[in-house]
């Protein structure tokens, strides 16, 4: 790793740490503009350190295949959610008090906060910039970035067992540290899956579409059940 990439990696980690610890939990109304600005800053750091658009998964090459694979992945997510909602055994998994609210609150979450306040930054950071700055083999970049993606979810995981009925029933007796560790592991594995989608699709748009479908349709399903 060159010195410029090492400094860019350090700056990226500081920006992400401040975002997840200080900004997102304390100023929820600022999440969308702040996270979009952080995503732009990360891309600027990556470009300044010498990473090209193709390395970041944002070049023109592969866009068509990326859209096709991402669309297919998003479709599978919707089908899986539909089956989960239809089966009584899995319907309870969508019972999450965080999704409660008016239709306006739902539309804001599904159409604005999640796509632009969550997915854009997470995909730019953990599937484009950090793997590129880490360098080395695909597995090296994937494992480091996905491990950091797991740690990124420490703060959001706090109180999860109280908000989600199924999680509370299954893991409520584990204690907060064990629940947080499980959330970090699950998020890291999800990060590996999204990195795999980016590699398969050949473009960052692939995991973006899958991620939006997973989170946005997930909150719609939770709102419907709750």
Written overview of the protein:
The chain has 226 residues and is mainly alpha-helical. It has one domain. Helix content is 79%, strand content 0%. The chain has eleven helices and no strands. The relative contact order is 0.17. The mean pLDDT is 91.
- Give the helix tally: 11
| Cα radius of gyration in angstroms | 18 Å
The share of residues in extended strands comes to under 5%
Oligomerization status of the protein chains: single chain
Helix content: over 70%
- Gap from first CA to last CA: 48 Å
Question: Could you say how many structural domains there are in total?
Answer: 1
| Structural class by sheet pairing and helices | mainly alpha
Question: What can be said about the biggest beta sheet?
Answer: none
Low-confidence segments, given as residue ranges, are none
**What sort of overall outline do the alpha carbons produce when their principal axes are compared?**
globular
Order of helices and strands: HHHHHHHHHHH
The strand count comes to 0
Return the average pLDDT rounded to an integer.
91
């Amino acid at each position: 790793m060159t010195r410029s990439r090492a400094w860019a990696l350090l700056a990226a980690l500081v920006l992400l740490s401040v975002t997840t610890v200080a900004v997102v939990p304390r100023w929820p109304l600022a999440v969308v503009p702040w996270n979009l600005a952080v995503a732009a800053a990360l891309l600027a750091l990556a470009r300044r350190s010498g990473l090209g658009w193709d390395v970041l998964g944002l070049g023109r090459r592969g866009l068509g295949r990326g859209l096709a694979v991402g669309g297919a992945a998003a479709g599978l997510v919707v089908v899986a959610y539909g089956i989960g909602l239809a089966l009584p055994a899995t319907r309870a998994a969508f019972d999450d008090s965080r999704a409660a609210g008016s239709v306006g609150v739902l539309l804001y979450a599904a159409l604005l906060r999640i796509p632009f306040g969550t997915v854009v930054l997470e995909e730019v950071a953990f599937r484009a910039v950090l793997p590129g700055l880490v360098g080395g083999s695909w597995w090296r970049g994937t494992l480091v970035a996905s491990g950091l993606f797991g740690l990124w979810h420490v703060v959001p995981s706090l109180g999860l067992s109280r908000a989600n009925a199924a999680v509370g029933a299954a893991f409520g007796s584990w204690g907060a540290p064990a629940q947080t560790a499980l959330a970090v592991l699950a998020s890291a594995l999800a990060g590996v899956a999204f990195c795999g989608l980016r590699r398969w699709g050949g473009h960052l748009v692939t995991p973006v579409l899958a991620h939006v479908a997973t989170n946005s349709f997930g909150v719609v399903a939770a709102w419907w059940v709750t």
